[in-house]
């Protein structure tokens, strides 16, 4: 029999999950495993279109440095950052769906990060993150507004978000929450990917590739005084070969890959040229995954393609600041995932000269962390 379109809706969750009522009854036992989650997804989607007022989407601005943030979980973060009180589960799911992108990056780079040597962070990861934290948390310089208070400022920290899709179209107030976590640092977010400007042509028409803008970048400057955003509708390996961003500095640069699909059969070929270039920069690469299976598939692909030239910085596991809202794959009603469910990090292996103290001491240094 030829395949038929899914047309029969479940009376409980309202999601089409079978082609006929007879097939729905046959698979009802397996559908019950996801029925409650599918109903939650359906209700959350209708909530966004309900026309109600969304107080959870009002974000706080900068706060005094003495008011330290607490990055243990979502509740402590929202409380310490003085967000509007979110007392219900549905508004909490809606607000975390957007904030998971900047907060996931900030929770790893911050000096009060919940990820330490006791919590999944490896010694190589501490070395890489310490370099970035040195830049993100500079000491007080005594700068002022008069001539005597003039002080040199360090360059901004560049975060390269590769394969950017939905994260590049987030409201800029959402990304400014990352800058508020680091009040004495500046950021330059660089979104790179062929889909980084999808459905945004009416907002920012792509400029011509000429003159001082050879790659047609869309520049958004002076966002809150601490952030600048550049968007390149191009592959990273093309920009890297043209040396558009060189030199790279582990003290100022980091790469972020949100759900990159490194090991997915349909997209792994697009990352084959990019991975060696990422390893050559020696900068940390932070990756997330939709599910545990998706994350482990990406790790296995990196481990196979790197051929021992990569160090694991952060052990893979569930992200403390994952999206609390579940998402549904429109092509497969049984495929349920959530944004940034898992997080891990790696970096190109660094070879440093050291004094030879015998075979015993050399063997005690251990591996790269992949065998953990």
Automatic annotation (TrEMBL):
GO cellular component, one term: mitochondrion
Domain Mitochondrial splicing suppressor 51-like C-terminal: 150-329
Domain of life: Eukaryota
Entries under InterPro entries matching the protein: Mss51-like_C, Mss51_Znf
Domain spans labelled Mitochondrial splicing suppressor 51 zinc-finger: 3-48
GO biological process, one term: mitochondrial respiratory chain complex IV assembly
PANTHER family: GH20023P, PROTEIN MSS51, MITOCHONDRIAL
Protein name stated in the entry: Mss51p
Organism (species): Meristemomyces frigidus
